[in-house]
Amino acid sequence: MKKTILTLAAVAMMAVACNDKEKKAEDYNESTDEVAMEATEVTTPVEEDQVTIADIAMDDDNFSDLEGAVVAADLGETLSSEGPYTVFAPTNQAFEAIPQADRDAWMKPENKEKLSNVLKYHVVPGKFTAADIKAAIKENGGSFDIITVQGDKLTATLDGEDVVLKDAQGNSAKVVQADVEASNGVIHAIDAVVMPKK
To answer: Core-most of 35, 48, 55, 99, by most CB within 10 Å?
Structure first.
């Protein structure tokens, strides 16, 4: 991005220099400043728009365990694809609630398919904000079934204003941070790892 801005600014300054005899110094400064500002305004949003779900998971310390699991399961490319996706992302504390022996087993190459299955259970096709989910819960009599990429469903309900997910094994996870926007969808941080059917 910086290289683009510097290149555009350099071209603008060369063009101004050709007409320097006809321009005052203050006109010159105004022109180059305007071009540099225009370059920043054009390129900065493009860079921000390219921050994917995978990028956010990799850059946020709260999701470092999730990042490790995504890498072990080779799902980084999926979470960087166009989508859109809604990801219910377990925090590090959520992963730490899983027995260490189970977590270690998930990370072994021979268990890659099982780990992938668990992670895909946290991903939903389409983009659903917290407001969308709450509205669907209310419109469906207090609960809303969400079909995941893995194929099993999560059931969303409300506990006060909090969205709570019930997994296929009867366990619950609460959304603790909603609507983390990405270019290819949205992330909702949850306080437990949800599990598909065994």
So the answer is: 35
